[in-house]
Every structure is written in structure tokens, then in C-alpha cells.
Amino acid sequence: MSEIIEHLLAEAVTKGGLNQKQIAQIVMFRIFGNKSGFLHLENLRIGQIPATPISRNQLVKRDITSEKLLLQTTSLLGEPIGYTQESNGDLINNFFPHQSQSKSATSDSYDTELDLHTENAFHAVQPEHLVLLCLRQDPLKEAVTYITSIERILPHLTDDDISFFFTEPYNFLSDYSHTEKNCRIDVGQEQTVLYGDRSAPMFRFDPYFMVASSARGQAQLDKLRTIAWDVAQPVLLKARDMLIIDNRKTAHARSPFTARFDGTDRWIQRAFAISNQRFYTAKLGKQSRVFDLVTAL
Ligand SMILES: [Fe+2]
Q1: Contact 274/125 with Cβ under 8 angstroms?
Q2: What keywords sit in the KW lines (predicted)?
Q3: What domains can you pick out in the chain, each with its CATH number?
Q4: Which of 16, 37, 80, 191 could cross-link 246 (Cys pair, CB 3.0–4.6 Å)?
């Protein structure tokens, strides 16, 4: 498998379809970031998109223009990676409504809101960026992606709040499971919401999967969730739109939307990027693009 992936990756880097201006926008975003914590690109080349499947075993996609576009983008951000618990470690994950996931809080659902979350906040190898590529918008244009950023949240926090979130550990639960999505597993990941440089903190936030150790901790978490939603920015992804999210500075959410299961449903592809693969290789003693659960480095 890995030889095929490396070949595809090399082809994506040279023929991924991004133009010079878009390449510059992506690299600028990686280096300098922005206040919103995301970059929205439109009208990209995604190739021929077949009818939206209704289950993963019906997923057949011969034109790989969109996959190459995603891999080229992750290569500009760093290295594409996968996780064994997400589509068996595939570097490109496909999301479309699954009837069986109705009312469940997973990326395969549609009629349930996905609350704000930093991707894989419990994982020691957290993606630096995630890239969402819209292959098809939902027919009723209801699906909204929300992004909240620590830069937009900070002006609403007091100095005491900031000190609290830099020092108060929360237990970040994992949904890590090979067989089931959305379980809440205690992997002993006690960590703070804010970390890094106090003048420009990094942020991890996943209220549904965070356990406070005191009443004050819970009250502060509730307060932060309200502020995070107040400053969240909505994005409506149309077909051929790409959303690059800085996962170390933001949390994102998705509104519910209607599914028809007739080939016209919303279809999103996602890829993750890390920018420091050699650091993880040195710490873990293993070079890989696909990570199992890691809770400490
Ligand atoms: Fe997500």
C-alpha cells in the first residue's frame, strides 16, 4: 500500500491542480495563519464526481483529481497523515450521510449537529491542519460549517480566565475505537485548554469529550463554550470549495442538514496534515504516515 501512496503523493505534488496564487495563499496561511484560523478557497478543479454513495462499500471513484488536490494541499502544509481509527488509516476520508448514522454525533451523520471540537484533541499526534474539500453541497444548502478561533475568543476572556485555562487540566476523552464511533473512552489524557506561548496560545476544545474535575472547571468550560459559539464564523461549502482549518488554534462544528439518499447528498473529503513528522518519528522510533492511538510522546 505505501508504495502506491508514495507514488500518488509524488504525482499530486507535481500535478495537484493548484495554481501559483492558490499555492502562495496556502503557504502564507501555514506560515502566518490568520485571526479566523481558516482559509476558504473556491472554484477548484475536482474532476468528475459520481453520484454520492450511501455506504462506504458502494464508494467507487475513478477520477482522482480531488484526491490529488487534497494531497497537494497537505504537502504544502506539511505531511499527509491518517489514523487507524479513521477509515483504517486512509489519507483521504470520505463523508456522506449514512442512514444508519441518523441522530448520531459522527461525521457520517446528517440530521444531528456536531458540536464544536478540535480534531483529535485527545491524541498526542494531533493534526496541525485539516483540509475539507466539498465534492457536492447538500441539495437544500442547509449544511453550515462553523469555525471558532482562539484569537477571536481571547478578547472575551479575563486574565484570570486565561491563567485558568493554561493551568486547569481537563480529561479529554477519546472516541478511539476500531469498531464503533463516538464512544467516550478515558485514555488518561489530562491536559489544559490553552498551551504554548501565553501571548499567542494554542487551543484544544471538545466540550462533549472533556471532563472537568471541579464545579468551577465545569462552569469555566460552559462559559468558554458560550463565547466560542458567539464568535464562531459560519462557512457554507459549495461544490469545489476547500476549507483549510488550523487545528491548533480553532474548533469547528457542523449544523444538521437533510439527506435524500438518492445520489445528490452532501459529499466531503477530508485530509489531515502534520508539519513535524520527524519530531514524531524521533519520539516514537517509527516512521509512518498512519498513527495508532498515541497519548504521550
Ligand atoms: Fe471534525
Answers
A1: yes
A2: Dioxygenase, Oxidoreductase
A3: 2-291 (3.60.130.10)
A4: 37
Residues recorded for the chain: 297
Ligand 1 mean position, distance from CA 263 (Å): 23
How far apart are the C-alpha atoms of 29 and 17, rounded to whole Å? 18
Residues with CB under 5 A from ligand 1 (ion): 119
What is the Å distance from ligand 1's center to 3 Cα? Answer: 28
Quick one: angle between helices 20-32 and 65-77, nearest 10? 40
> How many CA atoms are closer than 13 Å to the CA of 51, on its beta-carbon side?
9
Instruction: Please tell me the distance between residue 277's alpha carbon and the centre of ligand 1 in angstroms.
Output: 21
What is the whole-number distance in angstroms between the Cα of residue 270 and the centre of ligand 1?
A: 9
Q: What share of the chain is helix, strand, coil (3-state, %, to 5)?
A: 30, 20, 45
Q: What is the DSSP string of 144-169?
A: -EEEEEHHHHGGGS-HHHHHHHHH--
Distance between Cα 119 and ligand 1 center (Å): 5
Q: How far does residue 12's CA lie from ligand 1's centre (Å)?
A: 24
- Are 65 and 229 in contact, with CB atoms under 8 Å apart? no
Angle between helices 159-167 and 215-230 (to 10 degrees): 120
Distance 165 CA to ligand 1 centre (A): 22
Judge whether 46 and 69 are in contact, CB under 8 Å: yes
